[in-house]
Amino acid sequence: MTSTTTCRRCTNRPFLCRRRHGGALIEMVLGLPVLLMIAFGTAEYGYYFFVKNTFQSAARDGAREAITSSSTSTTVSTKVAQSLTNAGVGNCSYSVTTSPSNLVGLPNGTAITVTVSCNWSSVGISPLPSSLGGIGSSKVVTGTAVMNRE
Question: How far is CA 66 from each of CA 11, 93, 141, rounded to the nearest angstrom?
Answer without folding.
Answer: 81, 21, 21
